[in-house]
Fold this protein.
Amino acid sequence: MTIWFCLDCFATVDEGAGTCARCGSSLQVPGRTYEQKLIRALSHPLRDRRLMAAEILGKLRSQAATERLAEISLDGSDPYLQAEAVRALAAIDPEHGVIRRLKEGGPVLAQAAAREGRAGP
Ligand SMILES: [Zn+2]
């Protein structure tokens, strides 16, 4: 079962709900899927939202997110986001070239996340 989140405040919401019960934000953005919104949230100005987006995309096994997650997995500017992206990418595609590379060596957090290869919830 997919858990749905409001991508403005990350409260859990019911699938198909029109607005978020907590912050009132519209949940129906025309032309954008939930997955696409999450991928966009990987660039959210607030860090905890970027982390949440990475974690959720991993749990969803989002194939569409692999390219962006791979980019972040190699970007050491935020080690925690990097590790979360690595964990998500490893859940989606354990054999991804970036995961293989990070298992061999890389920043400590990213390497640990790649080796962990978390299988999801
Ligand atoms: Zn909300």
